[in-house]
Amino acid sequence: MSILKLGLIGHPVEQSLSPWIHSQFMEQAGIEGEYNLYPIEPEAFDTKIKALMQSGIDGFNITVPYKQRIIPFLDELDPDAEKIGAVNTAVRKNGKWIGYNTDGSGYVRAMEQVIPAKDSLHILMLGAGGAARGIYRALVAQGFRYVDIANRTISKAEQLLQLQEPETVTEILSYREAEQQLSTYDVIIHTSSVGMSPNSDEQIISMTGLKSGAVVSDIVYKPIETKLLQSANQQKASIHHGHSMLLYQAQYAFEIWSGKQVTIGDLLHRLEQRLTEA
To answer: What Å distances lie between residue 190 and 58, 183, 262, CA to CA?
Structure first.
């Protein structure tokens, strides 16, 4: 039986929990394999990525700053990855390298555990960067119809409108406007790095005025309880932590590589423990 050879490229990658996550999935699926970290310096990217792709590796994840830079080295792109313009998962199939983006789909998988309804929910996304592109595309593709976007640079947020479905309704807002109409949203999703350790005292907008029972989600997972989530908790909101997205996007990537379904089970709790101890 051949060993499944996987890994992660990026700069830096040394603190990644992906090896631990995928070792759990391989054990669950009964697959013998390995998942290694491949730090690549930007000036050495072209040479090192070609060598890695010719090394016999079966697939790999891509993190910052290479989610766009990897694209010219791939033979094909999944339609959603092509629309988003970013790839975080590559797999070798029949001698060809195919790129996918599991960030947004993984996020929606995680969110659907706490948000059952789709059509009538009003969602506010904070930020319009790379993560926002993937999440916005996945939300509208999965049938979430009302998704507004707030960003500091309005023109950057408007670029996400090319990812819409015909029935999508999206308003572009400034952060100030978002704060003023916060009470109209059922779900608030923070997609930027604001509040990430070591700048954990930062918060992108005020949570004052949240609708009762709203869900507030933050993709930042270091710290687990960001200032944004602490503030939302004080407003009696339901909280959705960022590390669940990390796990669900990894689940989707593993299914692409292995062809096997794996479940999250108690991994969410165990991952939270590891993050807390780190």
So the answer is: 33, 16, 27
Domain chopping of the chain, boundaries: 4-101+244-277, 105-240
- Please name which of 87, 50, 11 lies closest in space to residue 253, comparing C-alpha atoms: 87
**For 38, what's the count of Cα atoms within 13 Å in the CB-facing half-sphere?**
24
CATH superfamily for domain 105-240: NAD(P)-binding Rossmann-like Domain (3.40.50.720)
Whole-prediction pTM: 0.90
Distance CA 60, CA 63 (A): 10
243: Cβ–Cβ under 8 A, 6 or more apart, which residues? Answer: 221, 224, 268, 271, 272, 275
pLDDT digits (tens, 9 = 90+) for 112-148: 888 767 778 999 999 998 889 999 999 999 999 999 9
| pLDDT 10s digits, 232-270 | 999 999 999 999 999 999 999 999 999 999 999 999 999
CATH number of 4-101+244-277: 3.40.50.10860
Other residues' Cβ atoms within 10 Å of the Cβ of residue 40: 21
Among 67, 96, 227, 236, the active-site one is 67
Judge whether 260 counts as a catalytic residue. Answer: no
CA 185-232-216 angle, 5° bins = 50
CATH fold match for the domains 4-101+244-277 and 105-240 = yes
What count of Cα atoms within 13 Å lies in the side-chain half-sphere of residue 200? Answer: 11
Name the residue type at position 191.
T
Instruction: Give the pair of three-digit tokens for residue 132.
Output: 């926002």
